[in-house]
C-alpha cells in the first residue's frame, strides 16, 4: 500500500557543530511536527516501486544538501544532492531574525515580538518556496513539509 511520508528523520550529527537550547528546541519541534504530518514522495524511488514510508537523513557536505531516502527497513533507495548556494541568504536572514526573536522574548513587548515573528515567518515561507522549487521533479512534497525541512537545514548550518 502506498504511503508517501517520512516516518523517521535523522540529521548528520557530525555536521552540527554547535547549538544552543533555543535551536535544540526548534530542531525537536520541527522533527516532531514533520513526523506527525508530512508528505514526501521521492520520485525515482516511487517509480521503482518503493512507495513509502521513508526514512530520511539530512547532511551537508561541501556546500551541498544531501537527502538520503531509505525504505522503512533502512535500505537506501535514493540520494538527492542539492546545491545550497541559493539558500545562503535565507539561512543567514533566518538566523538573524531568530536571534532577534529569542532576545525579544526575554525583554520586548508583545507587539515587538509579534512583528519580529511575522518577519521570521516571512523568511521561513520564502525559503520553503525555494526548497519546493529545488525539489521539483525530484520529490513531491507540500509546503508544510518544506518549511520543517528548511528549519532542519538551518540546524545543519549552525557554526557557533
Short note summarizing the structure:
This protein is of the alpha+beta class. It has helices at residues 21-36, 43-47, 88-107, 110-135, 143-156, and strands at residues 6-11, 40-42, 54-61, 64-70, 76-83, 139-141. A hairpin with a 2-residue loop joins strand 3 and strand 4.
What ranges have pLDDT less than 50 throughout 5 or more consecutive residues? none
- Report the portion of residues in β strands: 15-25%
Shape: elongated
The total strand number stands at 6
- Number of spatially distinct domains: 1
Structural class: alpha+beta
> Quick check: average pLDDT?
90
Radius of gyration: 16 Å
Strand order in space, largest sheet:
1-3-4-5
For the termini, the CA-CA separation is: 44 Å
Percent helix: 40-55%
- The helix count comes to 5
Q: What is the N-to-C order of secondary-structure elements (H for helix, E for strand)? A: EHEHEEEHHEH
Describe the structure in your own words:
- With 160 residues, the protein is an alpha+beta fold.
- It has one domain.
- It is 51% helix and 22% strand.
- It has five helices and six strands; from the N terminus they run E-H-E-H-E-E-E-H-H-E-H.
- Strands 1-3-4-5 form a four-stranded mixed sheet, with helices on one face. Strands 2-6 form a two-stranded antiparallel ribbon.
- Helix 1 packs antiparallel against helix 5 and helix 3 runs antiparallel to helix 4.
- The radius of gyration is 16 Å and the shape is elongated.
- The chain starts with 5 loop residues before the first strand and ends with a helix.
- 22% of the residues are buried.
- The model has no long low-confidence stretch (mean pLDDT 90).
Amino acid at each position: 500500500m502506498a504511503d508517501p511520508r517520512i516516518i523517521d528523520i535523522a540529521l548528520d550529527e557530525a555536521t552540527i557543530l554547535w547549538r544552543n537550547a533555543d535551536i535544540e528546541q526548534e530542531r525537536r519541534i520541527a522533527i516532531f511536527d514533520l513526523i506527525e504530518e508530512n508528505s514526501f514522495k521521492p520520485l525515482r524511488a516511487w517509480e521503482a516501486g518503493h512507495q513509502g514510508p521513508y526514512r530520511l537523513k539530512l547532511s551537508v557536505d561541501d556546500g551541498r544538501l544531501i537527502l538520503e531516502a531509505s525504505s522503512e527497513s533502512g535500505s537506501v533507495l535514493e540520494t538527492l544532492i542539492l546545491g545550497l548556494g541559493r539558500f545562503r541568504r535565507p539561512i543567514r536572514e533566518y538566523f538573524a531574525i531568530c536571534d532577534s526573536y529569542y532576545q525579544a522574548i526575554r525583554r520586548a513587548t508583545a507587539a515587538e515580538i509579534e512583528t519580529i515573528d511575522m518577519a521570521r515567518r516571512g523568511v521561513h515561507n520564502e525559503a520553503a518556496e525555494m526548497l519546493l522549487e529545488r525539489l521539483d521533479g525530484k520529490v513531491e512534497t507540500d509546503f508544510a513539509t518544506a518549511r520543517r525541512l528548511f528549519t532542519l537545514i538551518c540546524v545543519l548550518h549552525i557554526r557557533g
